[in-house]
Amino acid sequence: MREQRDCDVSFHDPFPGKTLGFIVNPIAGMGGPVGLKGTDGVEVLLEAKRRGARPVSSERALLALRRLATSTAPFRLLTGSGELGEDVARAAGLDPIVVYSSVPGSSRPDDTRSAALVMAYAAVDLLLFAGGDGTARDVLGMVGDRVPILGIPTGVKMYSAVFGTNPQNAGNLAARFVAAEPSVRFREAEVMDIDEAAMRSDRVSTRLYGYARSPHERHLTQNAKAGSPANENMSLDAVSRQVVREMQPGCLYLLGPGTTTRRVMAELGLPSTLLGVDAVMDGALVGADLNEHQLIRLMEGHETRVIVGVLGGHGSLFGRGNQQISAEVIRRAGRDHIIVVASMDKLLALDAGCLRVDTGDAEVDAMLSGYLRVHTGPDRSVFFRVRS
Fold this sequence. Notes:
Blueprint: E1 18-24, H1 42-50, H2 57-69, E2 75-80, H3 86-91, E3 97-100, H4 108-121, E4 126-131, H5 133-143, E5 149-153, H6 167-178, E6 185-194, H7 196-200, E7 206-216, H8 233-245, E8 252-255, H9 259-268, E9 278-281, E10 284-287, H10 292-299, E11 304-308, E12 316-318, H11 327-333, E13 338-341, H12 344-348, E14 355-357, H13 362-368, E15 370-377, E16 380-387
């Protein structure tokens, strides 16, 4: 059972500005750095904690609300109690109205869904939520197309098109919406999540769960994950062979998730973890499905190179589904030791015309920004812009 706090505000009374809803999924993203594929379910959460995972959602949500708090246009913020949003809102210097309180011991998805329903009944102009694809599914399931939604990316995957490219940009977009800037337009944005049946069959596939009405600005919001073009196979096979030929003896290679890096592992004749991070040295597998701490331990005393693909659709390089390759791992490896492999078709299909990084560390994001070499075929590469 859930309870709504009594308050003396009628949300249907005239108000000179926008009314925003705000929900934080406090456990979103905990599974990423520790090598889990998400944080859905009690057992997965317990395993994430056992591996030393720490909450990240509130910290990232605070980055967004600090940007929103700079708005000079009037707005009011409805939220849930404590870690469901109230704590973050007050830390950002806002004075939220708590309209939903969780019962101790309640389930997180239940809290998200119930809070979203309360805010839909309150007729908020925009519902801002912090989480990943699972949270987006829960919110969409409650509000449908009645309420526009915008995601602060704090989860593991975030393949959906309702998210800002990073927390700060989600806050910037919310502030522009509050100010009724004409550059903010609405679109029908895909809400997607990993197809678990396909994952069990060792395939990366996303499933469409519906469309949400969501504010959009080209450089502030991401597109949904897109599938790989059918004609990219030959070029990726060839560039994978070249990557293998150029591997240096005594050097540690960390291979990120996805079908592109799986091709490199296939050229080595090694098994791979489709949604995990594997480590190779001198042609041998030295670690499979590794978490952040395991990667750092392996890197000690070894020159390290990181091999990653590009997430089709929104062009993510780091920060979506590969949080095991953390800011610290990237810092230790160094920018010059990052090997990016992608087809030219995939790069040309990126709507934003750039690659995205969102490691959670501003210094590392800045280090990665600029132009980075992307290997597109045998003896072929392009320098593609990276933005944080």
